[in-house]
Amino acid sequence: MAMTSALFPSQSLFMHITNQRSSQVSCGSSNKWAVEEHDLLRSTSSYNKDGFNSTKFAGLVKDVKYSLMTERNTNNLVLVDTLQRMGIEYHFQEEIESILHKEYDQSACFLKYQTPFDVSLCFKLLRQEGYHVSADVFKKFKNSDDSLRQDISGLIGLYEAAQLGVEGEHILDEVAKFSSDHLNACLAHSDSCDQATIIKETLKYPYHKSLASYKAKSFINNFKGINGCGRTTLQELANIHYSIKREIHQHELIQISRWWKSLGLAEDLKLLRDQPLKWYAWPMAMITDPIISQQRIEIAKCFSFIYVIDDIFDIYGTVEELALFTQAINRWELDVMVDLPEYMRPPFRAFYDTINSIGYNIYKIYGQNPTQNLRNAWKNLCNAFLKEAKWFASGELPTTHEYLKNGVVSSGVHVILTHMFFSLGFGLTNQNSMNLEDTSDMASSVATIFRLWNDIGSAKDENQEGNDGSYLECYLKEQKDGSMELAREYVVKLIENEWKKLNKESLHLMSQPNLRSFSKFSLNFARMIPLMYDYDDNQSLPILQGYIKSLLYDDLSSE
Known about the structure:
With 559 residues, the chain is an all-alpha fold. It has a domain at 54-234: Terpene synthase, N-terminal domain (Glycosyltransferase), CATH 1.50.10.130. It has helices at residues 9-18, 37-43, 47-50, 54-70, 73-86, 93-105, 108-111, 116-128, 145-148, 152-162, 170-189, 193-204, 212-221, 231-263, 265-268, 276-286, 293-316, 319-331, 345-366, 371-394, 400-410, 413-423, 440-455, 471-478, 484-510, 516-532, 542-552. The protein starts with 8 loop residues before the first helix and ends in a 7-residue tail after the last helix.
């Protein structure tokens, strides 16, 4: 599939080395999500300025490839897992695919591996790549309660594997409960600080439901090496990859910042969120392949307008004005601007021009124009926003079913995944016959997780004063004797169940080679959501801020 990128010098370099596989947050600012461009430029990696030894990099890649081809059994799987956790698996896709295909053909999880750790690792690696392996492989451990109690690595492996369960896999539900109960018991009696940290991290951020890029830095710095592939080789390779990728992200963020400032919307509408750093964080987390640059930039623009339109609906507009704005989006004509209030005209024009430009850019690459599909997604979003505005203006809360059905659309997830689908060329080339409808169930699951996580956030989105509504409010209205604590527990359970649906859809899409990347990017979307809504008591997002800082500014070795 054809793919283009907006190439900077460092990105051209990265394109060269990847052929082998054929911001600092300005905490002192009044807006912590503003982009201080001079800081980014000053902190840009020195790889491009000082020269880059591509021969050395190629040698490191060659050494790892040799290990992948010569190692056998568990060591091979541990190496594959290590490459994925370090975020450098891009360079070894063919070798990894070959290894996993052989494991699947040989039914390795069933026959070769007997320990909980080995079976769990094989199961996890195969299933996350779309192989349909049965959860029955864990039945052999059902009567091993006593021997497993102190097997920390085995319990962690079981817990991690259980996160890939789908609806109806009761054995994995049992595995999840068993392993979490015993890990918590080990945590209560652990004398090792390092061991306690690992257990806490596993329980709070299991790998499958977390961003690999979020956990990569800690993993690389604490990596002790594995048999068959030296610690230095892998750490050095990861360090180079990390630094070049960071420089790519810095340049992309500068582009987004300049584009946003050129629109002038934050100056015209003072209450709009002015957060290009936060908007860019979404596609930076979702689309992790370094060379897919232009798509990250354009998806960031889409996120920015979801936030802008959300603020117009929540803060600025009356119901009558919002109805006019929604009508303008539905008609998609510049002539309707004359019917809009003065303050709505600049954002409407900027939005109209941006989405049409994105559609035209896709047309230039693939020869087909998906703009009508993009328009339909935005129309649906605004219609859902308007329905919410009417609900809350009337003072009448909808039922939980009505709220969630509409909230899935108003989350904006379908808008983003529609843009991503076409930006990556799906359904637009002669090499594939995928339809957007093929991804609708996955989009709905991601959107449900988004809406529910949003609604159980511990604080309002910074200084926003608009009335967004909440699933919790609707639930408490229906459950007359319910408490907020029970409501939150119920919503957490809904999110867990939705993850099982998402896992099922991921397995389905991963079995179709043309949609594997779409599935992975969509899963990353869901993984990013908790970081975006994990507010502390000061209405801040310290985990998100730390994640962004590490990817855009910190050296790999800095803590």
